[in-house]
């Protein structure tokens, strides 16, 4: 039996950057059926394959004496079983200084047993051509390089145990399209600065949880197209959860239930031309952000169209007590969008920054109860209604829809040498009887200073109850369909029209 060593570019590149949306499946029946299959596979192994079992407390995979029968290590025609509470280490020693691949017909890791990469040389791949079952622990906690887990079938893969990247990198994926991992009852985690990466190609993780601590990362980024569906998966991110488009389009989708709870950093980012990068929350899933969620385009080239988006489908839920940033470079060929088919309330901070950044609400309502909505530098919000019931509305961007301002709201605008401050409302702007306007900045302050322009104004028309802070001697007045600040001189209002 020979150990197969694959080249450094394994797994191979994948075709097809555009993925058809997979239908949402009923998970209860699927999991019950799959669990039965998993148990049968665990008992029977792969048809025609020899079962080789781990028989020592700890040792290296590549030592034949550590297996029973002890004639050779498991290879492509064998079922490898580690079910004795032992620990098997993927270590090719000094004989293989490049990426090595262990390939078996199937693998079962029992409860209490461990498969780990702990050598100090290079990366290792474990490729399983049949069913892969983990009821124990798979970990990478020491040494250099990464541990790659390659699932080569779309059925029979199950994790009820733990996959742990402890200060190191684990790449979880497959070399076939539409690989699947039933993770019901399982945990996939990155701790102590570790990284879980989904390299390629398209696949599903169903059930269970993905978690990071404050120093660790879950990363949908590598050398190829990566399209990952998280079905009934609870992602708990205290570190970094990101989908980055550096060379290829990548999509990450939450379906059925579960979603992302993030107190750390979440990011959908493009730094390459001609690619798309998206994160989608389907019906029944929730984005609960108390950290910072950024949707961005950081490339500067204008040679090809690119797109970065967060998509909230009908039936999904957004809870934001943190910060959501939608921002773009000056790039006439790229867009950055928060797309929402749901009404949502914002008690946190939402910033829309840049001429090609927008919130697209599909005719829905955005309600702000506290915090800040800052639309600036050409950014825009498209919604049926924008109700500012509390907090701060700021910026010099555009709102396409009807806007209502409550009396408790603080309007904040920053001026620098006479530039900035004007917010354009394409719709009806309904004004309260009283409000506080906070103006900050430096340089020359324009007289008058326009805060709003609108298609039409409703509500309070004199603004006599409005006060201005940050600029001495100014008051707010109506000037046609604009709200402006005008100079007050010894108690006399000077209307500058």
Strand content: over 45%
Q: Total strand count, please? A: 48
Poorly predicted segments: 1-44, 93-98
How far is the first residue's CA from the last residue's CA? 90 Å
| Structure classification | mainly beta
**Biggest sheet record:** 26 strands, mixed
Question: What report would you give on this structure?
Answer:
The chain has 497 residues and is mainly β. The protein has a domain at 1-13 and 24-179 and 193-200. Helices cover 4% and strands 53% of the residues. The chain is built from 1 helix and 48 strands. The chain has a 26-stranded mixed sheet that branches. It is elongated. The relative contact order is 0.06. Mean pLDDT is 82; it is low at 1-44 and 93-98.
The gist of it:
The chain is mostly beta strands. Helix content is 4%, strand content 53%.
Which terms would index this structure?
single chain, 497 residues, mainly beta, 26-stranded mixed sheet, 16-stranded parallel sheet, 1 helix, 48 strands, 53% strand, elongated, disordered N terminus
Topology:
Blueprint (H helix, E strand, L loop, with lengths): L26 H18 L5 E5 L3 E3 L6 E2 L9 E5 L4 E3 L10 E5 L1 E4 L4 E4 L6 E5 L3 E3 L2 E4 L5 E6 L6 E2 L2 E5 L2 E5 L5 E4 L4 E5 L3 E3 L4 E5 L2 E4 L4 E4 L5 E12 L2 E6 L4 E13 L2 E6 L5 E6 L4 E4 L2 E6 L8 E7 L4 E4 L2 E6 L5 E7 L3 E3 L2 E5 L3 E4 L4 E4 L3 E5 L3 E9 L3 E3 L3 E8 L4 E7 L6 E9 L2 E9 L6 E11 L5 E5 L4 E6 L2 E8 L2 E2 L4
Parallel strand pairs: 1-4, 2-5, 4-7, 5-8, 6-9, 7-10, 8-11, 9-12, 10-13, 11-14, 12-15, 14-17, 15-18, 16-19, 17-20, 18-21, 19-22, 20-22, 21-23, 22-24, 23-25, 24-26, 24-27, 25-28, 26-29, 27-30, 28-31, 29-32, 31-34, 32-35, 33-36, 34-37, 35-38, 36-38, 37-39, 38-40, 39-41, 40-42, 41-43, 42-44, ...
Antiparallel strand pairs: 1-3, 44-47, 46-47, 47-48
């Amino acid at each position: 039996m020979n150990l197969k060593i694959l080249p450094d570019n394994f797994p191979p590149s994948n075709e097809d950057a555009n993925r058809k949306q997979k239908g949402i499946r009923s998970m209860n029946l699927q999991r019950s059926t799959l669990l039965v299959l998993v148990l049968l596979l665990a008992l029977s192994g792969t048809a025609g394959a020899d079962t080789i079992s781990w028989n020592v407390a700890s040792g290296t995979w590549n030592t034949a004496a550590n297996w029973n029968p002890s004639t050779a290590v498991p290879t492509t025609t064998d079922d490898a079983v580690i079910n004795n509470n032992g620990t098997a280490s993927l270590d090719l020693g000094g004989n293989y200084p490049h990426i090595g691949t262990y390939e078996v017909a199937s693998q079962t890791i029992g409860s209490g047993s461990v498969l780990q990469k702990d050598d100090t040389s290079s990366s290792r791949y474990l490729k399983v051509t049949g069913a892969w079952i983990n009821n124990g622990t798979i970990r990478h906690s020491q040494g250099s390089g990464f541990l790659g887990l390659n699932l080569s079938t779309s059925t029979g893969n199950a994790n009820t145990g733990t996959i742990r990247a402890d200060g190191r990198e684990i790449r979880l994926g497959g070399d076939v399209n539409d690989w699947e991992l039933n993770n019901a009852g399982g945990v996939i985690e990155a701790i102590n600065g570790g990284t879980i990466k989904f390299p390629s190609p398209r696949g599903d993780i169903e059930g269970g949880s993905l978690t990071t601590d404050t120093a660790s990362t879950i990363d949908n980024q590598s050398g190829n197209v990566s399209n990952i569906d998280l079905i009934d998966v609870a992602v708990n991110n205290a570190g970094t959860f990101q989908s980055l488009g550096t060379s290829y389009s990548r999509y990450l989708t939450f379906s059925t239930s579960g979603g992302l709870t993030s107190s750390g950093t979440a990011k959908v980012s493009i730094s390459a031309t001609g690619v798309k990068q998206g994160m989608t929350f389907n019906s029944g899933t929730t984005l609960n952000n108390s950290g910072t969620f950024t949707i961005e385009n950081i490339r500067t080239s204008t040679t090809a169209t690119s797109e970065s988006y967060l998509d909230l489908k009908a039936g999904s839920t957004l809870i934001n007590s943190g910060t959501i940033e939608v921002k773009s470079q000056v790039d006439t060929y790229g867009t950055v969008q928060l797309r929402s088919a749901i009404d949502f309330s914002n008690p946190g901070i939402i910033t829309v920054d840049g001429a090609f950044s927008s919130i697209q609400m599909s005719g829905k309502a955005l309600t702000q109860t506290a915090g800040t909505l800052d639309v600036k530098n050409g950014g825009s919000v498209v919604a049926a209604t924008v109700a500012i019931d509390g907090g701060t509305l700021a910026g010099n961007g555009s709102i396409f829809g009807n806007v209502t301002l409550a009396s408790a709201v603080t309007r904040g605008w920053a001026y620098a040498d006479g530039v900035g401050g004007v917010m354009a409302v394409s719709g009806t702007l309904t004004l309260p009887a009283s409000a506080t306007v906070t103006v900050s900045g430096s340089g020359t302050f324009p007289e008058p200073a326009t805060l709003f322009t609108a298609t039409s104004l409703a509500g309070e028309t004199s603004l006599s109850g409005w006060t201005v802070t940050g600029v001495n001697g100014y008051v707010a007045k109506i000037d046609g369909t604009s709200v402006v600040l005008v100079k007050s001189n010894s108690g006399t209002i000077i209307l500058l029209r």
